[in-house]
Design a protein that fits this description.
- With 232 residues, the chain is α/β, with parallel strands linked by helices.
- It has one domain: Alpha-Beta Barrel (TIM Barrel).
- The protein starts with 10 loop residues before the first helix and ends in a 7-residue tail after the last helix.
- The chain is built from 9 helices and 8 strands.
- The chain has an 8-stranded parallel sheet with strand order 7-6-5-4-3-2-1-8.
Length: 232
């Protein structure tokens, strides 16, 4: 495989990345925040490892995946390159050890059994508590009323570092209002974990609203990568 330094990124990929970067800069300016406060994670769902090599050439070092069966072979192929892998999808407890082999940040911790499974790997992991901002119990994420007990469980395990909270804005609610509620829940978590200041929120269509409400980690997919290949 070619070295990253020898790769010329696809012009359309570079153009989309530049457009999103400009949008992030403008959203930070409008919110009175520094661009340095925000980590841009490019979600590479279904895209090949070759696209991730192009992203590295563009200066991207944080990538997100939501299916272990897709992420694992890409992480293996790209081992040794300057990447931080973020797992952003729903995670089964029995896959925790395998995912921890490559991912260093888990954005979807939503139940005590998963906390226990991740802690058993004994690998240092950064974790976000995923919150369900809807009334649908079938959606991923913990209900707000269990956030504090879940926080306590994470804090009990030295190998886990609680970074903060994560959520997806409901499709039937104003994104800014949803992220404002998430910000309030972040404040609640910080009563027990003052260092858990991070908020993982904002995707291709609503990252400006997320930045306005304090998001520190954006999970941007198609706005940068383009349309996803057909699901395997």
């Amino acid at each position: 495989m070619p070295l990253v330094d020898s790769i010329t990124p696809d012009p359309l990929l570079a153009e989309r990345h530049a457009a999103v970067e400009a949008g992030v800069v403008e959203a930070c300016r409008a919110a009175g925040r520094s661009r340095d406060e925000v980590t841009l994670i490019v979600v590479t769902k279904f895209h090949p490892a070759s696209l991730i090599r192009q992203l590295i050439a563009l200066g991207i070092h944080d990538v997100g995946e939501n299916r272990h069966q897709d992420a694992a072979p890409k992480a293996a192929e790209l081992a040794g390159l300057p990447l931080t892998w973020h797992f952003v999808g729903q995670l089964q407890s029995n896959k925790a050890r395998a995912v921890a082999e490559y991912a260093r940040v888990i954005h979807s911790v939503d139940r005590e059994s998963l906390v226990t499974a991740l802690a058993r790997t004994e690998r240092p992991l950064d974790v976000f508590l995923e919150v369900n901002l809807t009334d649908d119990p079938g959606r991923g994420g913990a209900q707000p009323d269990v956030l504090l007990p879940l926080t306590e469980r994470v804090l009990a395990h030295p190998s886990l570092t609680l970074r903060g909270v994560m959520a997806v804005a409901p499709i039937d609610e104003d994104a800014r209002a949803a992220f404002a509620r998430l910000r309030g829940l972040s404040d609640r978590v910080r009563t027990l974990a003052p260092e858990a200041r991070s908020i993982s929120a904002g995707m291709s269509g609503d990252y400006a609203e997320a930045i306005a409400e304090g998001a520190t980690h954006l999970r941007i997919g198609t706005a940068i990568t383009g349309n996803r290949p057909h699901r395997p």
